[in-house]
Design a protein that fits this description.
Elements: E1 2-4, E2 28-32, H1 33-36, E3 44-48, H2 56-63, H3 73-87, H4 89-111, E4 116-117, E5 124-127, H5 136-144, E6 152-153, E7 158-161, H6 170-185, H7 208-213, E8 216-220, H8 251-263, E9 271-275
Parallel strand pairs: 1-2
Antiparallel strand pairs: 2-3, 4-5, 5-7, 6-7, 8-9
């Protein structure tokens, strides 16, 4: 099992945090050191657990398809420095201080009546914007105009990433801003989101590469039912595909995609490229 633990480089380094993915049984874990440690942008590591069921030579051989023959010495040095710092005594002290600040900030926000979703990482605060009648993308735009940048806006939530050195100013500024946000944009709770009409496991009807290279045309989402997708449909963030090349767009999926287009204004176009013919 390969686990994407992009934001989890600090997990498992403190008793208050859940164990890292390797401890939970993952064979491989990808960690982005730029997101939860002090690494430069694009610095990341692939970790293999001691009990991994994958032989090392097979992993090395597979990486040959992706690795460059001219790796960046700067990024490699950044990875090493970030890992050493994170696991050092000073790094653990910084993490403990950040966790304390994150927990205090959560308590302040909850004391203000702001709805936060439960999660297991004190360095991630997830505001349940749907509960106060606000699309998370609208909340994100409002906050950015006031100098506060969240990590992940979604239609029903807004996630804040505090990092290993949360600014002290957050402890008084963020509660005030979020209360203003609630007063100015808030209203009745948004309707519950419907589950996507997707099977637990699906395969493209047409091989992905073939669909990607095939002649394609753009059609309105409302007219996409029955057609084969020619490219991914992927709002960013979070960058999770709602549709991949080669998938058949049935009527239920077409209606759901139209609903998503309304929830992700500016992120999903009102047309989709499909295989021509």
């Amino acid at each position: 099992m390969l686990l994407d633990e992009a934001h989890g480089a600090h997990l498992g380094l403190d008793a208050r945090l859940p164990p890292a993915g390797l401890v939970c049984g993952a064979d491989l874990v990808v960690q982005s050191l730029q997101k939860a440690a002090g690494g430069l942008a694009q610095s990341a590591v692939l970790l293999q657990g001691a009990a991994s069921r994958l032989p090392e030579p097979a992993i090395e051989r597979a990486l040959l398809w992706l690795q460059t023959s001219s790796p960046s010495a700067l990024l490699l040095a950044s990875c090493e420095a970030a890992l050493l710092d994170l696991c050092s005594a000073a790094g653990r002290r910084r993490l403990a201080a950040a966790l304390d600040r994150g927990q205090r900030l959560r308590q302040q926000l909850e004391a203000c009546g702001l709805p936060l979703l439960p999660n297991r990482d004190p360095l991630r605060l997830v505001l349940h914007t749907a509960a106060i009648g606000i699309n998370g993308l609208d909340a994100d735009a409002w906050l950015m105009e006031r100098g506060v940048i969240a990590e992940l806006p979604e239609p029903g939530t807004l996630t804040f990433c505090l990092g290993l050195r949360p600014p002290p100013v957050l402890t008084w500024r963020l509660p005030r801003l979020l209360q203003r946000l609630s007063r100015q944009l808030g209203g009745p709770a948004l309707s519950p989101f419907s589950a996507p009409p997707l099977p637990p496991l699906a395969e493209p009807e047409l091989p992905l590469g073939q669909a990607w290279r095939a002649p394609a045309e753009a059609v309105p989402l409302a007219a996409a039912a029955g057609r084969l997708a020619a490219e991914p449909l992927c709002p960013y963030p979070p960058g999770i595909p709602l549709l991949i090349p080669g998938e058949r767009i049935d009527a239920g999926r077409a209606a759901w995609l139209q609903q998503q287009q309304r929830l992700w204004p500016g992120q999903i176009a009102d047309t989709v490229r499909v295989v021509a013919g």
